[in-house]
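To illustrate the input format used throughout this study, we show a single complete record. The first block contains the structure-token representation of the backbone; no residue identities are included at this stage. The design step must infer an amino acid for every position from geometry alone.
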């Protein structure tokens, strides 16, 4: 990457992540400065979005900048036009590229050929902006990150991957319970283990949801079939039937444990009815924090 892009949580040092969380917390009280004044951000979205698109557009506006939204039909990354050509063209006009894509490889190509920072707004590999918002939410509700225990129940997908890397970086214990063959990809898990060893942090993969949540401060889950996996839906529902987060599972965590989900959620699948609105749920704080965490990230990369 020629510029300071953010494709993975591991692109940031623990100190940088901590600084972004601190700055995001400050932005929640005031967007008085305009560090993105006279700057334009391109939003390339191959996948539909509610939280990601709206939070980025509002954040860019609050920081004084402008955004341009581009759909997959308009740009056709790697189909209608080579990714490197798109990168070179956009670099002449915009100050940053935010991309929500199916293939992480296309993100890497954008970052390699662009003359501006590229931000991963979700790929098949990671969802690092979500992880920043997650850390901010945990910090707000637990008053600390170091030593806090997070239990992730379900698929070892892009959200779980970024959260594992993020927790390892800030000394937050991370336990994931998932069926065999649905673990976090080996390369990402090995990277998380390397980071955890440097920070002396415990991270662990297992099969039992009950073991993962025992003593947890945070219980987190996500959909069983992500976008692009719809053809696996029936198979995944069978494989994950014992991985639903409900009141019974939550009762095995600490009494003051919080429940998190990056949304959209499917009641009757990964969560029982009512979980999003339970007393332990902080999912709407978590959604709101996407705005502030991403704004702090944009400020760091562009100001």
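Output of the design step:
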């Amino acid at each position: 990457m020629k510029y300071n892009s953010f494709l993975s949580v591991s692109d940031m040092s623990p100190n940088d992540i901590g600084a972004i969380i601190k700055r995001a917390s400050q932005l929640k009280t005031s967007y008085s400065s305009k560090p993105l004044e006279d700057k334009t951000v391109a939003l390339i979205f191959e996948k539909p979005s509610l939280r990601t698109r709206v939070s980025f557009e509002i954040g860019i506006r609050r920081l004084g900048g402008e955004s341009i939204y581009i759909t997959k039909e308009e740009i056709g990354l790697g189909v209608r036009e080579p990714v490197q050509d798109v990168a070179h063209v956009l670099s002449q006009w915009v100050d940053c590229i935010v991309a929500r894509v199916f293939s992480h490889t296309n993100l890497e190509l954008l970052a390699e050929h662009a003359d501006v920072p590229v931000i991963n707004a979700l790929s098949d590999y990671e969802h690092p902006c979500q992880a920043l918002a997650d850390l901010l939410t945990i910090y707000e509700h637990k008053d600390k990150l170091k030593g806090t225990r997070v239990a992730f129940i379900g698929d070892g997908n892009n959200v779980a991957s970024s959260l594992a890397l993020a927790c390892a970086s800030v000394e937050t214990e991370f336990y994931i319970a998932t069926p065999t063959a649905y673990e976090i990809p080996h390369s990402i898990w090995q990277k998380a283990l390397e980071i955890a060893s440097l920070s002396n942090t415990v991270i662990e993969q297992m099969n039992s949801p009950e073991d993962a949540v025992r003593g947890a401060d945070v219980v987190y889950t996500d959909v069983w079939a992500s976008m692009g996996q719809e053809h696996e839906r029936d198979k995944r529902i069978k494989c994950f039937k014992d991985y639903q987060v409900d009141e019974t599972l939550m009762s095995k965590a600490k009494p003051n444990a919080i429940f998190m989900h990056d949304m959209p959620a499917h009641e009757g699948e990964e969560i029982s009815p009512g979980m999003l609105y339970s007393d332990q749920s902080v999912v709407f704080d978590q959604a709101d924090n996407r705005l502030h965490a991403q704004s702090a990230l944009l400020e760091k990369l562009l100001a």
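Structural context for interpreting the output: The mean pLDDT is 95. The radius of gyration is 19 Å.
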